[in-house]
Specification:
- The protein is α+β, with helices and mostly antiparallel strands.
- Helices cover 34% and strands 25% of the residues.
- The chain is extended and about 85 Å long.
Length: 198
C-alpha cells in the first residue's frame, strides 16, 4: 500500500514539475519575444526621430497661450436654471427677478428671462450697480453676508389656472467671498424643488 501511495505521489510530482517546466519555458519564450519587440520598437522610434529632424526643426517647451473666446462674457455671481418636469426639458421664457433683501435691501430688482436652455447667466436692472459690483462692494463689508430672493413667474409660464403656484420665491443666503451661486429650479404645475447647484 505504501508503495502505491509513493508511486502516485511521484507521478503527481512529476506531472507538476513537467507542467511547471512547460509554463516556465513559455514564460521565458514570451519574455524573449517581448524583449525582441521592444528592441524593434526602439529601432523604429529612433528612425522616426532621425527622419523628423531631417524634415523640420521642432521647437520644444514653447508655451501655447490659452485664451477664452473674445465674446465670452464673465459669469454673474448668481445664476439659475429652470427645468420643466412635465416635459423633461428646459423651461424657456420664464420671467425671473432677483432682489437683495439684506443687508441693504430690499433692492431694486434685477430681471431676466430664461433662455432656450432654461438658463439665466446675466441680469439687467435699472441704471446703477450691476450684480458683480454689488458682490464686490459687499465682500469688503459686513463679512459679505447677504440674503437674496429669486422670484419665478410660474403663473405666466404654465397659465394662471394651470398651476398651483402662480409665483415661486426662493430665498437663500450668500457670502460674497464664496464666489458663484447657481440655483436650479425643477418645476411642475403642482410642485417644485430647488437646491444649490454648481
Amino acid at each position: 500500500m505504501r508503495s502505491l501511495i509513493s508511486r502516485s505521489l511521484l507521478k503527481g510530482s512529476a506531472k507538476f514539475l513537467r507542467s511547471r517546466a512547460r509554463t516556465e519555458s513559455i514564460a521565458i519564450y514570451q519574455t524573449r519575444e517581448l524583449v525582441d519587440d521592444l528592441a524593434q520598437d526602439t529601432i523604429i522610434i529612433s528612425k522616426l526621430q532621425n527622419d523628423s529632424k531631417k524634415l523640420r526643426p521642432v521647437i520644444m517647451n514653447e508655451p501655447t497661450p490659452l485664451t477664452a473666446p473674445p465674446s465670452a462674457p464673465a459669469r454673474e455671481p448668481i445664476t439659475c436654471h429652470v427645468l420643466d418636469l412635465t416635459t423633461g426639458r428646459p423651461a424657456s421664457s420664464v420671467s425671473v427677478s432677483l432682489n437683495l433683501l439684506r443687508p441693504l435691501g430690499p433692492s431694486a430688482p434685477l430681471t431676466a428671462v430664461t433662455s432656450s436652455d432654461g438658463r439665466i447667466n446675466h441680469w439687467s436692472g435699472e441704471a446703477g450697480s450691476s450684480l458683480s459690483q454689488i458682490f464686490a462692494n459687499l465682500a469688503e463689508h459686513d463679512d459679505g453676508e447677504m440674503l437674496w430672493s429669486l422670484k419665478f413667474d410660474t403663473g405666466a409660464y404654465f397659465g394662471e389656472s394651470k398651476t398651483f403656484f402662480p409665483e415661486v420665491e426662493v430665498k437663500f443666503f450668500v457670502n460674497a467671498k464664496d464666489g458663484h451661486y447657481h440655483v436650479p429650479l425643477l418645476l411642475g404645475p403642482w410642485s417644485y424643488t430647488t437646491y444649490r447647484g454648481s
